[in-house]
Amino acid sequence: xxxxxxxxxxxxxxxxxxxxxxxxxxxxxxxxxxxxxxxxxxxxxxxxxxxxxxxxxxxxxxxxxxxxxxxxxxxxxxxxxxxxxxxxxxxxxxxxxxxxxxxxxxxxxxxxxxxxxxxxxxxxxxxxxxxxxxxxxxxxxxxxxxxxxxxxxxxxxxxxxxxxxxxxxxxxxxxxxxxxxxxxxxxxxxxxxxxxxxxxxxxxxxxxxxxxxxxxxxxxxxxxxxxxxxxxxxxxxxxxxxxxxxxxxxxxxxxxxxxxxxxxxxxxxxxxxxxxxxxxxxxxxxxxxxxxxxxxxxxxxxxxxxxxxxxxxxxxxxxxxxxxxxxxxxxxxxxxxxxxxxxxxxxxxxxxxxxxxxxxxxxxxxxxxxxxxxxxxxxxxxxxxxxxxxxxxxxxxxxxxxxxxxxxxxxxxxxxxxxxxxxxxxxxxxxxxxxxxxxxxxxxxxxxxxxxxxxxxxxxxxxxxxxxxxxxxxxxxxxxxxxxxxxxxxxxxxxxxxxxxxxxxxxxxxxxxxxxxxxxxxxxxxxxxxxxxxxxxxxxxxxxxxxxxxxxxxxxxxxxxxxxxxxxxxxxxxxxxxxxxxxxxxxxxxxxxxxxxxxxxxxxxxx
Length: 607
Ligand code: BG6
Fold this sequence. Notes:
Strand content: 15-25%
Number of strands: 26
CATH architecture of the largest domain: 4-Layer Sandwich
Oligomer: single chain
Radius of gyration: 25 Å
Bound molecules: 6-O-phosphono-beta-D-glucopyranose
Number of helices: 20
CATH class of the largest domain: Alpha Beta
């Protein structure tokens, strides 16, 4: 997720662009840049790091003349966070500059075609193909050039474009990434969201997918993908800037829970082509995989629990034994790792000290390594032989949500990809691909099916202890569910393999002790049902998570949360969502500092 902004009017554009980018910095902050038109030329200033560096370089914009321009703050997806990869990107002839938020899924083939046509690339980004296409198609009419260009693109894009032959004009295009126009007095704007606009105007136009806009100081024109003018309503923004940063949600955590359908879609869909799972970024060959005797997954915190959840799918589908090890343990355990081991290291930040140390230890013992990371160019990403990025966008809340679900989604896809690469014939392959493609929609259903969770939170928010139980994948998800509850609501919570409760912990169950029972795997439902009856007979209150039509569980549970039917091998991506919401609303009920829980850090970069 990146932030884009544009301004055209009579004032100096650069200071306004910088101010807008500061408001968008929560959307991405590894590099930034502005491009401003002045006397028929486009000047570009770009930096790595925060907007403050760009302000310093441009003397808060005062060193950059011109009254129309575009700006960008980046969250890297393709290409490390370097100055060359920062936006805006220029065409070879210098007449066009572009900023982009989104992912161009077919950029590799477009890049090859453009290089063959004589265009040279300055960056590794997917975005740069767009500005060269515009140069190629421009014959004096920007609308026509933009329509031809976007007809070639597959993926998501919110674009801002300027052309030195059209002074004072901005062009904006929206497809599956947010883009809003700001309507001022003798000046107009565009931005990724209202935070960048609300200090200048509260009159906005929301572009729809497939719409284009042409802005000048005194006009705003919108047209559709065929170039036909579109009448648009001007809306009034009532939010303040702070609320707008969180998209109107009270906390970043809730915003990021709600972003999960989009985050999982952004992570999955570019890797499914013509019904096949593809990992173009992986250098692992069939030969490499066939000599792997075991997979070791290592990580910390929720990333470790993501590995626990995916172990079942990895083993069942790729037939490779999987061990999941805490990084802080593995690094000192003299691990049995060698050149027949594939180490999968998972880290949202890519900077967790224990995880980095475990990765180095495994490499020293000859393991092939594959990192699943959310931050492009992070230390884990640089150290591993192979990297698969989760395209979740920046995760601001300390307690991860979309980081976890996108990690599990990648691991589930890898399970299917490994099997396919090793030539394992599996009649379920098409079914697995269909299930994976449906995950974003299933997550949305899981959100929509659980409007009763705030009320459940009121009932359970002052519990002394909560026990999460489940079997198989349900058990793995209960580990993450219990951690979420502890992390943000500070209630003591423990996760147990449902069958294990009777071997000791059941001694702690007393009248009204809450037990959250995960029952999302039909094959072992009966077993968990008997565990529910066991704890109920000792006075527990059971809050079950299951399918809506699961009468056996529904009839014995005291309270219920639901998920839609999902293949148990991949269900962790969906099951965790009601548990995230439960933890969130309990913490809210308890007045906790949800986005910054006490004693915790977003990434623990020390031992
Ligand atoms: C903790 C975070 O500090 O580190 C967790 O609060 C996270 O959310 C864990 O799961 C591991 O962090 P990372 O960045 O390596 O996934």
